[in-house]
Amino acid sequence: MSQRTTPPFRADHVGSLLRTPALRQAREKRARGEITADAFKEIEDREVKGVMGKQEAAGLKSITDGEYRGISWNIDFLERLDNVESYTGEHKIKFQTGGAQPQPIQLRVIGKLGGHKRHPTVHFKFLRAHTAGTSKIPIPSPSSLHFRYGRDAVPESLYPAMGGFYRDLGTYRKVVRAFADAGCRYLQLDEVNLAYLCDPSLRKVISDRGEDSEALPPIYAGMINAAIADIPPGMTITMHLCRGNFCSNFVATGGYEPAAELLFNTINVHGYFMEYDTERPGGFYPLRFVPKNKTVVLGLLTTKSGALENKDAIKRRIEQATKFIDLDRLRLSPQCDFTSTEECNVLAEHEQWAKLRAIVEIADEIWS
User: What sign does the dihedral 263-265-270-276 (CA atoms) show?
Assistant: First the structure.
């Protein structure tokens, strides 16, 4: 298959998009009991179809549902795993802001992990049925059920040794296979925690709670490889690396160097969406480890503000990256979601679409 027709595409995006006012109002009304579940779903379906059409109009080839059907990039998916429940509790990993933090929703394990309470492909089937583009599904990486909570979320009565818990997170393999069987050929794992572990301050958080921060990256790599071990030929798995994204704020800093060799040569994904919009992720030097059969999507346009980047400046950044990786193995995208939860980043919808159109235009000019 040609590079132009196989994901990740020259111009691509992470997946989650600003929620429309109509969707947010409908969800608030539903929470207050002012509209029925059926009425809410009708609005939700309409808004999902609308955001899909806007992606197509912007020139994107990968089409998502904007993650319009959930309130969080990770909670909605993870709490549907068998024997995982959500509850209200204090955040242990905080965003670097004196302002708001995400809703205090936490997760914990209440039984042996085994499957998925609700079939995970329902939303994908709707997406696939309503676009001629390539349907893309982002889901949280299996490490997301551990990093933020640690042993506090995993009772010793269920898992005396954490190795058993890590092994049972292989239940992700069933979920990934279910997407494949439903026809999904482009799936993205949102893996923020390996990027977090490049930050010395967050490694200290892990050490302070009694865990070995140096041991976690290979453990997470093993879980990811187990999760994607049963995919069919022609299915693309990418990984999105992020340092936190809530209301235009972040959690971590630090370049990719501490995890680069493991990221690129141990984990068996096909491509990487990498945050590169600020100084926080460091330089492009770690890209020297990327093997010839993998691609890197440079997240050079920020989703944390609405100011549109200069095209020539973006092209110069891509040129800088080619000192360490061939241009043919590079792609372009925003650095992250435009919103990871219902609380949107600090930019307007028209600014979001301007950035996505600019990505398509820049990619066409570079790779045409």
Answer: positive
